[in-house]
Design goal:
Structural class: mainly beta
Radius of gyration: 13 Å
Order of helices and strands: EEEEEEEEEEE
Number of strands: 11
Strand content: over 45%
Oligomer: single chain
Largest sheet: 7 strands, mixed
Shape: globular
Low-confidence stretches: none
């Protein structure tokens, strides 16, 4: 059974930092593109960042220079380091795993709230 479990969300002040983790099981992690998406109330889910099996990363313009995605294949875990957080970053953050011609899977999400 495929399972993606996010952790690390919480409440932080503007300008603060947070690191999200996503632990995966039931997939061939090293062959999967891993991604972080977010969804705020009343908005569509959007890509924040992803990282391929070859360690190539991609970021939304809104987070470029502030967020860093990384992966540890030995631990089947993908991370999202979030710095210089803004209130606009407030959302539920979801982990995603994807393999071409196989499919995609989602975690349950973790809440990130940026507020003073």
């Amino acid at each position: 059974q495929v399972q993606l479990v996010e952790s690390g969300g919480g409440l932080v002040q503007p300008g603060g930092s947070l690191r999200l983790s996503c632990s995966a099981s039931g997939i061939i992690f090293r062959l999967s593109t891993m991604g972080w998406y977010r969804q705020a109330p009343g908005k569509q889910r959007e890509l924040v960042a992803d990282i391929t099996s070859g360690n190539k990363s991609n970021y939304a313009d809104s987070v470029k220079g502030r967020f860093t995605i990384s992966r540890d294949n030995a631990k089947n875990t993908v991370y999202l380091q979030m710095n210089s957080l803004k209130p606009e970053d407030t959302a539920v953050y979801y982990c995603n795993a994807k393999r071409v011609a196989i499919g995609a899977y989602w975690g349950q999400g973790t809440q990130v709230t940026v507020s003073s």
